[in-house]
Amino acid sequence: MKKNKSFFPKIPVIPYEGPGSDNPLAFKHYNPDEVIDGKSMKDHLRFSIAYWHSFRGAGTDPFGSATISRKWEGNSDLVSTAKTRMEAAFEFFQKIQAPFYCFHDRDIAPEGKTLAQSNRNLDAVVAHAKQLQKETGIHLLWGTANLFSNPRYMCGAATNPDASVFAYAAAQVKKALDVTKKLGGENYVFWGGREGYETLLNTNLKREMDHLAQFLHMAVDYAKQIGFKGQFLIEPKPQEPTKHQYDFDVASGIAFLRTYKLDKYFKFNIETNHATLAGHTFQHEIEVAASAGMLGSIDANQGDELLGWDTDQFPTDVKTMTLAMISILKAGGIGTGGFNFDAKLRRPSIGIEDLFYGHIGGMDTYALAFKIARKILSEGKLDQFLVDRYSSYDNGFGKEIEKKKIGFKELEKIALKAREPKPISGRQEYLENLLNQYLYD
Ligand code: XUL
Ligand code: CO
Known about the structure:
Elements: E1 35-36, E2 39-40, H1 41-45, E3 47-50, H2 51-56, H3 79-95, E4 100-104, H4 105-108, H5 115-136, E5 139-144, H6 163-182, E6 187-191, E7 196-197, H7 205-226, E8 231-235, E9 244-245, H8 250-259, E10 266-271, H9 272-277, H10 282-291, E11 295-299, H11 318-330, E12 339-341, H12 352-379, H13 381-389, H14 396-402, H15 408-417, H16 428-439
Parallel strand pairs: 3-4, 3-12, 4-5, 5-6, 6-8, 8-10, 10-11, 11-12
Antiparallel strand pairs: 1-2, 7-9
Helix pairs in contact: 3-5, 5-6, 6-7, 10-11, 11-12
């Protein structure tokens, strides 16, 4: 990076000023260097910036063209513009104090007229990224391939009825794995944007699911061949852009991975707004993944409760994120994953400071949620409630049920002898009040 050229000359490295600060360009809760349990908050939270929204998003929606223009954008999408944009991005990553970023291949480098040209463009920008990573100490959380924007993928990539599109997608993922490895990416994500269908009238569901599984096996095999050690992640989403996406939610993703013997190679990248689109809470998706030992990483955002689509807003809902954090911490954290802000500015948020406000809010929300969740867990009241609620399985015939040592016949004898089970309160209101005490004390 040319040391004296700044893309954000009026904005400093965002400082931590604490909850009392009224500086909108300061953190109130995220103190990157604060050490908690022998680890800095930066290392606990592993925040990541999504290149596609923050450096390729221009405020477009289906009803209108771009509203956001950045001074580093050239007139044409050339490799040199891509490199300049990347310099702006790395300055932003440093100023916002995020240790990671994530990208799709086509976010960082322009697609060429041929696949070979696209690969050359990517190589040129990746060399630049490698240099910038070295200079700044910023790491790649994950890479992925965009298998949904180009018209060739209109009927899917790995699930396309045309095998030549499958081949093209395979070549694209092969290259994306190469560059993710080259940049030290800690994970590789598959989001099946168009891996689904619009109508079953034109779709062979079984063949498409078989093809998707075969594609993922090929990726696993290729990763082994090149020595890529990063974690593979599936990012479920129920629909949008397809009517039905095959990896609808975490539960269907687990079933898919187990059916095709892929489960030992994959974990889940869970996105808040995808969870709610599937009719679940964010915490539900985290608990389902954690229960299978497959919690991998988080795409941090939130939806709008009145809109039924993927609005990808910056996370500001402390309660939702605290509940998620409780489940994440109980599961032992997210390992090589991180909290990636798959969030975009609202269409009228056109100022460069808005990009900072969005991320500051998201980081502070997660930092606050992290602190509250830790307090809740350390005081143990919610946990104790759960321990007590299931304690009848800790001894006697309850324990024998869990140990699979008892069957219907033995249980019938017990039930015939015993009195009617005494109803026990679920205490939901008490628990909700307790949670509020932690959230608003
Ligand atoms: C789309 C989405 C993607 C993935 C990466 O809803 O979340 O940006 O995160 O392909
Ligand atoms: Co996402």
